[in-house]
Design a protein that fits this description.
Helix content: 40-55%
Strand order of the largest sheet: 1-2-3-6-7-8-9-10
Distance between the termini: 41 Å
CATH architecture: Alpha-Beta Barrel
Order of helices and strands: HEHHEHEEEHEHEHEHEHEHHH
């Protein structure tokens, strides 16, 4: 692996080999998502606890301070919306030249294995890797399932993650599932756990994050379960403890409850 590729990966995966990535790219298909209507205001108190942001170029330019020095994973796929016919019908929306101009640490896109657009999105990944490798930029593949949430089982996600790795992704973002170690054990590149829709309770989120870490994930790529929480800073502090301090779900919940009573600096 070339020095540039190693250097960029080291920006998003910390020296302990773990990472807390925070996506705020939801607007590319959901529009003004709840609590993300003003992304810059939402992320400001959360940046000190995030290892990297996953974001589109539009929000990066307009909402992320260029002097924040937070590593950026640039969302480069899209072309669909939640009101359209099929979320899987994605294409590449942003060039590698643009990624270089924006000085990002990595680029990311979604693949939709098993959908009508499987071939299209897998070729998107392949073509992106071909270009990104030339400039030492790592690619993160997101194993998206669109609206078909029932696909989130170990057999399906193992298939998705392995294909993503085979096509050249350096990191794979996928959903937590039962027997998650079957997913991580069959994927030869690092796996991060996606959050998906906000959970009913904080403990529910802490449990799947801790289980994912115990079963081989190197971290999370978690958005709505952080910034849609009523207390986002205590939430990200608790998750940070799971990722970087090996805290259990119960210990994380204690941190969350303790931090809730403290004033948040604005």
């Amino acid at each position: 692996m070339d020095w540039g590729m190693k250097n960029r990966l080291s920006q998003i995966i910390k020296p302990d080999g773990k990472c807390l990535l925070m996506p705020i790219d939801h607007g590319y298909f959901l529009g003004p998502t709840s609590k993300l209507e003003r992304p810059g205001e939402t992320i400001k108190p959360l940046l000190p606890y995030s290892d990297a942001l996953f974001v589109t170029r539009g929000v990066l330019r307009s909402c992320v301070p260029p002097d924040s020095n937070i590593p950026i994973i640039l969302r480069v796929s899209g072309g669909t919306s939640i009101v359209g016919k099929d979320l899987a019908n994605e294409g590449l929306t942003t060039s590698i030249k643009e990624a270089i101009r924006l000085n990002v640490s990595a680029v990311g896109l979604s693949i939709f294995v098993g959908s009508d657009y499987e071939h299209q999105t897998l070729m998107n990944l392949s073509n992106l890797v071909n270009e990104a490798e030339e400039f030492g930029i790592p690619v993160m593949a997101v194993t998206a399932v669109g609206k078909e949430l029932e696909k989130r089982d170990a057999r399906y996600l193992s298939l998705c993650c392995r294909i993503a790795a085979e096509l050249g992704a350096k990191v794979v973002k996928t959903y937590w599932c039962e027997d998650f170690d079957k997913v991580t054990n069959s994927c030869p590149v690092p796996v991060v756990v996606a959050g998906g829709p906000k959970t009913n309770t904080e403990m529910e989120a802490f449990q799947f994050i801790a289980d994912g870490m115990n079963r081989g994930a190197i971290g999370v790529n978690l958005g709505r379960n952080i910034w849609q929480n009523a207390h986002p800073v205590p939430m990200i502090k608790a998750i940070h403890a799971i990722i970087h301090e090996n805290a259990s779900a119960k210990e994380a919940n204690k941190i969350y409850e303790s931090e809730k009573g403290k004033k948040v600096k604005k």
